Each structure stands twice: as structure tokens, then as C-alpha cells.
Amino acid sequence: MKLFGLNLFGSEEETVEVINPVRYDATLDTGAADKDLAKRLENAASLVNDEEQPVSGDLGIVIKAREDRDRLVAVLYEEARYGGTVHITIQGTDLDALPPNPTFDHSQPVPVTVTVVPGPVFALGSVRFDGDAAGRDPADYDLIPGGAAGSRLILKASEQLLRDVKAEGRPLARLTERQVTADHRTRTVDVVMGAISGPEADFGAVTVKGSRTVEADFIRRYSRLDKGGRYSPEQLQKASERLRELGVFSSITIREAEALAPNGTLPLTIEVSEGKHRYFGFGAEYSSLDGAGVQGYWGHRNLFGEAESLRIEGKVSGIGATTDVTTFDYSAGIVFTKPGFPVPEATFESRLEAKSETPDDIYEAQTVIGSAGFSYELNETDTLKAGGEIAYIRADDAFGENDYLTFAVPVSFERDARDNKLDPTEGYWATLGAKPSYEFFHGSVFSSFEGSLSGYLGLGAEDNIVLAGRLSAGTLIGADELENIPVTRRFFAGGGGSVRGYSFREISPYNEADEALGGRSYVVASFEVRTKLTDNIGIVPFIDVGTVSTEIVPDFSDIRAGAGIGIRYATPFGPLRLDVAVPLQKYDGGSDYGIYAGIGQSF
Fold first, then answer.
1. Residues 6+ apart with CB under 8 A from 21
2. Which parts of the sequence belong to the POTRA domain (predicted)?
């Protein structure tokens, strides 16, 4: 069995029955290719990579060789080596000179020789845009005379050119020409691209196919394509992503009609395939400081036919940090979500949660929270949230045993301009929130304000290095005495999502008895250099810095920092993460290091 490409148990080799198996012995000569090009050629040569696996019949070797030649030539073209050649012989005979049904000597593995002559690197020569593409600047598509001329770059430019023409509201736009001419004398490549834009059009009638239990009218409405408006490829992409995020469909395809309707609009068809609506699962996390955590959940993604979801979840954490089960952290909750209510841009969510937490013996708290609220998408990147929350807290902390009953009105704004939510390489993510509150038992009024900003910058053509930074801060205003604010609402720092190297919530102001008080304000900053070693494996050196203060503005009198290095392993649902960090200014009796494991980037 394999998981994420790793063999967990069983034989690494799989038995595959091959009819009339023929074995061969392949060699690859990459000539004067540099190290990087040679590696790419080796990876593309299936004759070499699959050498241990026999092919079916003598013709199987020929077919594999022809496919390899096409792949190797494609690699050379991607590297702008248009004068390169690939020569393959099988048992001493040139591939193109073999008869239609060759017969080889099987007394030993059939020898196959692949010889690649890379040739010189070509530069881009002249670039011309014709037709309705005329007048556009080729430099906007990275087509610069004298610059890079790889086939992938040229193909990408043509695809972007077509998208840009279509983005002008012209759904019938098409490329009429994509001509690439290599001049071997000057070692340059001349490019000509042409396009026909076609008429401008609005989105027209929307038809839904494939829905069974999810109402077609809801799909049409939630896509927001039924509102009409000028045709836009970006809006089609957004509609597809929006429907996919509902979690009720295994596949989504939005098809454009090949011709405009009589009224001049473009008809659309949304084709969906529904997945399983009921689901269950479990997860795990680990920190050497705070112990292990396990969680389980059950859910339904389509309760009433409009993708309403119900999720019941439970979690236990702090396992292993102590052997006393009464000091573990427990939580259980139920969440109901109704998307597209009362308008397509809005989502209603209600939640009921109970939890008991004892973070590193800093405090004990039992909490029951009920909340309900709406989120509203202002546009593709901006979301506004507002709601109400009531919470009962029984706490035992530095101020003794206290009960709290609070009513709060949380309001927040989020802008998500990341290119990828699971593993961003560019863009930024900003949040800003306020939570006005009233505590009934102590009669105190207070409000918390928090904000964060994360930014990402990819370096190199393939974003093999990503600089990632995050800055977050918060303040609590109101309530004359700190003890009149529930301990769960005061600020702490430390742990895997904050300053690594310290225990969860270890960073705090302390009283003379060395008891953690929690603070009225905090600032936390993190910086990472996410470096890819291979397509799947990366390393991440990082540093986190934070401070928590009893004043409404941090006084920075006690700044704590942690530094370390992490490993990332890419999977389809986000990178697996393992971080090791040490505190640069540890507390007396505090942690010496921390190990953190989870799914997804740290921020």
C-alpha cells in the first residue's frame, strides 16, 4: 500500500501481466547537455526509467521508442534548443529504418540506444500580432526579441493572448494563427500570432444538467451566472470555484455554446456530478510540547436540497503532555451552514460548542458557546462577517475561580488575494475584526480588536523559493480590571500557530507568583523562506517573534522569539508540515524546543 507516494507495506514492485514480454537494455547519451537539461531528459526517457518492466512484443519497444523521441524533442523545444536532435536505434538499426513488424533477437535483452544532441540555445527573433490581436505589446506576454524562446513560453503567451481577447467580453474569440519559425543560421525564432475577436456578448440562459438531489435552481442561482452581465472568462472560473467549494459535487464543468442566441447572448450549461453527501473522518496533530491531538467528525453536505451542511465534531488534545486525562483538552460542537441565504452572496452559519481546556496548567476553563451570523461576499476577494454570540465560562486562573456570561457582536472583514489558499506563492491575506462584548455577572463592557496581514512573494520561474511573512496584533479596551474579562478572551501567544518553540499560550504577562495573567494586547510576527528541493519536498527556515502586554498598547518590555526549520511534503490537499523550533529566550523551567506536525502551511 502507498500513501502520498510512500510505500507503507507490501512489495514495492507490483506484478503486472504482460502478453509476450520482451526485455530490453536501454542507454541514454545526453551529449553536451548541461546538468539541469540532462536531468530533464533522463526524467522524460521512459525507455530508461521503465527498463525493469518488459514491453509487450517487439512492436512494444518500437512504440515506446517513438513516444520517447516525441517527449525528448518536446523537452529540447521547451529549452529553446530547436536545432537539437534525438536519434534512437534498436538492436543497431535506426528507428525510422525498421520494418512495420520488426523481429529482434531475444537471446539477450534487446539493446536500445538513445542519443541526444542538444544543439545551441535559440533566442526570440521578431514577434508580430495580427488580426484583432494587432496593437498589443508582445512584451506584456514575455515575448521580447533577444529574450527567452522556449516553446512553453510561446504556448503560454498564445493562451494568455486568447484569454485577454475573450476578457473583453468576446466569447467567440479564437486564435487564427500561431506560427513559429526557427532560423538555424541566426539561431533565432520568429513568432506570428493572430486572433479574431468576434462580437461582444452578455451571459445568456443557464441550463443545469446532472443534478439529482441538489436543486437545479439553487445551482443556477448560486453560480451567479444567471444574473447576465458581460461575458467574462474570469467570472466563469469564479462560478466553477464557488460551486466546487460547496463540497457536494465530485465534478463541475461549465460549457459555453458554440454560437450566440438570437438575442445576442451566450447560453451556458452547468454540468455537475454529485458526490456522496454524508461523510465522516478523523484527523491528528502533534506537538512535543503540548502533546498529541485527535479529532473526529460526521457531516451531511445537502440536508434540504440546497447544499445546507451539518457537521458534528469532537476533539481531544494534550494527549501525552500528561498522563492525567482530566487535564486533557476536550471539545465538541455542531455546526449548521446554509449557503446562498438569503441572497447568493450570503451564507448563514450557526454553531453550538462546548469545551474544556487546561493549556499547560496556565488556567482551567469550561466553556459553552452559541453563535449565529452571516458572511457576505462583497466581491471576489472581500468578505464581511457579522453575528451574535453568547458564552458561559467557568474559569480557574491567576485571579481565582470565576464565572462569566458574555454577549458579543463579532464583526470582521477579510480580503483574500492569495493565488492558492492551500500553498500560496504570491498575493496577500488580510483580516480585521472587532468584538464588542458585555459581561453580565461583573457588569463590564469591553471590546477586542484584532488584525493580521500575511504576504507571499515567489522567486524564480517556478516559484521554487517563496518568501512568506505575517504580522498580527490585537488589543482589548474596556473593563476596569483584567479579571473582569474572561481568561479565554485575554491574549496569549506561543505554540504552533503563533511563536514556535514555546508551549501553547506560554507567552503572557506573569504576576509575582509566576502565574500567567493573559494580556490586553499582543503583537506576533513570523517570517519563512519556503524552498523547494524537489517537486514534492521542501525545507522552510523560519523565525517567529511575539510579545503580550497588560496595557492596551504593547510596551515591548518582554519580547520572545523562536527559530527553527521545517520540512514540507506536497500532497493534493496541501503540504504535510513538520517544524522543529527552539525558543531564543526561554522561560525559567519553560520549553527547550518544540516539534509541530500538521497539514497545510503554518500561515
1. 54, 55, 56
2. 201-275
